[in-house]
Specification:
This protein is mostly helical. Helix content is 70%, strand content 0%.
Length: 488
């Protein structure tokens, strides 16, 4: 038993070392907005939020003042992101004060500040995402064995999207995704209150985590309603509600004393003015806009309502399943289906939003290895227009090759060869590789400058739509009633 534990520690250490090395290597590449004034990009946004939060009181973080120009990357994430920016800003100021000097550091770019900010993402990944995914996989697959769990950990931590967006493009998705993974691990262990609190923290770090909200709500409510008595159900629901409200209150505490300030924060989080989509993204509204000019047919407010209705309908089967037949694996599939439904149909979706369904897919890799591996590659492919804009084409190709190499090492996990499945996967990968090469090396027609972006979005959307149907069918076919609960 001791030898088994030592073996798992060794395998896990090796996976973590490779994951760290890949992140460091990607961090050597360009980032969003590098050398591109006056707005620069996401790197400047994150740096600016550090500048604002460490130099101004909380009451000025989300409002336009002489010292805080919301026109230049105004803070538009929930309070936990602001606190994260504050903590990282203190760290950056300790080593390079000029990088976060109020008012004079706009567009600040040096090699040392780049290294410092890259380090803050790396530390966040190491402290939150890595342990959370490790604990989630141990909870989900307690009898899988060290080698299989190490393979699943490698698949999750070497996921091209997780690496490229945070350590290339420059974001901190590892924090909110790590908190969600921690919530899954807690719920799997029967600690629903802790899981609820962790999920609320994730939601208050990035409000895109709302993609999971219906799945978590339905599962926890469904499980509570299955308790032996109405009294025990009411007690459990009350406890969960209290945990959620208290966690929200603590996260928003600096803003709750002033109603106008709290509303100002909320207004910053709702991007209605930005339209149903901006750049090309692999979802329904963007892909079908070629034939149906949604932006001309409907106002932004009308489109927002339409998106809300269609998204709710897309999530309804998973919500109904978890209310009627809650199970822990069902929660993962419901989270996958709901987050993918939000990506495909909700309002103002970003390319990087595909990372949200990628997390539950990665956690299901030992149950659906081929589907989850292919889904990860498609998700990276869908972000090529964004990554090319950042100068990350080479990094993307390298990350995909490393990911496929790591995945190929799990021969016994992948199971026996199936010619039909492998032929379909080969055709899909060939089409994605060919279109990626065309995007990288060819020039689009002058009349259609975004033709290649549209083709990438359309091909990725077709894959995502198929997976959305597949995983919804899987949820109802394989995780039904008492049998599903026993298998968990």
């Amino acid at each position: 038993m001791a030898e088994g534990w030592q073996g798992e520690v060794g395998l896990t250490g090796a996976v973590l070392a490779v994951a760290m090395a890949v992140r460091l290597a990607v961090g050597l590449h360009p980032y969003s907005g590098m050398g591109n004034p006056p707005k620069f990009g996401d790197y400047e946004a994150q740096r600016h939020w550090m500048e604002v939060t460490i130099n101004l009181p909380a009451k000025e973080w989300y409002v336009h003042t002489e010292r805080n120009d919301l026109g230049h990357w105004g803070l538009d994430y929930p309070p936990m992101s602001a606190y994260q920016s504050y903590a990282h800003g203190l760290l950056v100021r300790a080593f390079e004060p000029a990088a976060v000097e109020l008012g004079t550091s706009v567009g600040y770019e040096t090699e040392s500040s780049k290294d410092l900010l890259r380090a803050t993402v790396l530390v966040s990944d190491l402290l939150i995402m890595f342990p959370a995914v490790f604990l989630a996989l141990r909870a989900i697959y307690p009898h899988a064995g060290p080698r299989r769990r190490a393979w699943a950990l490698a698949v999750a931590l070497l996921h091209p999207g997780f690496v490229l967006i945070d350590h290339g493009h420059f974001q901190y998705n590892c924090i909110s995704l790590g908190l969600v993974a921690g919530a899954v691990a807690a719920i799997w262990r029967g600690r629903d209150l802790l899981g609820s609190c962790l999920y609320v923290l994730a939601l208050n770090h990035k409000h895109m985590s709302a993609y999971y909200a219906l799945a978590f709500f339905a599962h926890l409510l469904g499980a509570a309603l299955r308790l032996p008595t109405w009294r025990s159900s009411a007690t459990k629901v009350s406890a969960l509600g209290a945990a959620v409200v208290l966690t929200f209150a603590l996260a928003w505490l600096p803003f709750l004393g002033d109603r106008d300030l709290a509303l100002a924060v909320l207004r910053r989080l709702v991007p209605i003015r930005r339209g149903v989509f901006e750049d090309y993204v692999s979802n329904f509204w963007c892909v079908t806009h070629v034939a149906i000019k949604w932006k001309k047919l409907l106002s932004d407010q009308q489109l927002a309502k339409c998106c809300a209705l269609v998204t709710a309908a897309a999530c309804a089967p998973s919500v109904a399943h978890q209310l009627l037949r809650p199970s822990r694996r069902g929660l993962l599939l419901a989270a996958l289906n709901c987050s993918l439904g939000f990506y495909l149909f909700s309002f103002q979706v970003h390319e990087k939003s595909i990372l949200l369904p990628c997390l539950p897919a990665a956690l299901l890799s030992l149950e659906y290895p081929w589907a989850c591996l292919h889904f990860a590659i498609v998700s990276a492919f869908s972000m090529i227009p964004l990554l090319q804009k950042d100068g990350l084409e080479l990094a993307c190709a390298a990350c995909v090759v490393i990911f496929i190499s790591a995945a190929s090492a799990g021969g016994e996990v992948l199971g026996p060869r199936r010619p039909g499945r492998e032929a379909a996967a080969a055709a899909s990968l060939t089409a994605m590789a060919a279109l990626s090469a065309v995007k990288a090396f060819a020039s689009p027609p002058e009349r259609y400058p975004y033709l290649f972006d549209l083709l990438i979005s359309a091909l990725a959307f077709a894959h995502f739509a198929c997976y959305f149907v597949y995983w919804n069918v899987e949820l109802w076919a394989r995780h039904s009633g008492t049998a599903a609960t026993k298998r968990d």
